[in-house]
Structure formats: structure tokens, C-alpha cells
Amino acid sequence: MRALTYRLERIHQLTGARPTHPAHRYMLQTAVIGARPLDWPATSL
Fold it and tell me: Is the CB of residue 25 less than 8 Å from the CB of residue 11?
């Protein structure tokens, strides 16, 4: 459970978004879905 809590807090630190907030979670999920076709982060943008 600590690993999950740490990761959620780290996401908040890096993005300013709260993964537990529905609107923020939707924004983060959309960003991940959009990054996949770009092969990010393996490929530099």
C-alpha cells in the first residue's frame, strides 16, 4: 500500500494534479492515452 500512496503523491508533485480527484484523474488518463501513440517517453518529442 505504501508504494501506491507514494506513487499517487509523486504524481501530484510532478503534475500538480490529484489522482484521487475525478476531473484530475480524467485529465491524467487522457494524457497517458495521448502519449502512447507517440511512443513517449521512449521517443523524444
Answer: no
Residue 44 falls within a domain, yes or no? Answer: no
Distance CA 33, CA 13 (A): 21
Q: Total domain count for the chain?
A: 1
Distance between CA atoms of 38 and 19, rounded to whole angstroms?
23
Whole-structure pTM value:
0.71
pLDDT in tens, the chain (45 residues): 799 999 999 999 999 999 999 999 999 999 999 998 988 888 776
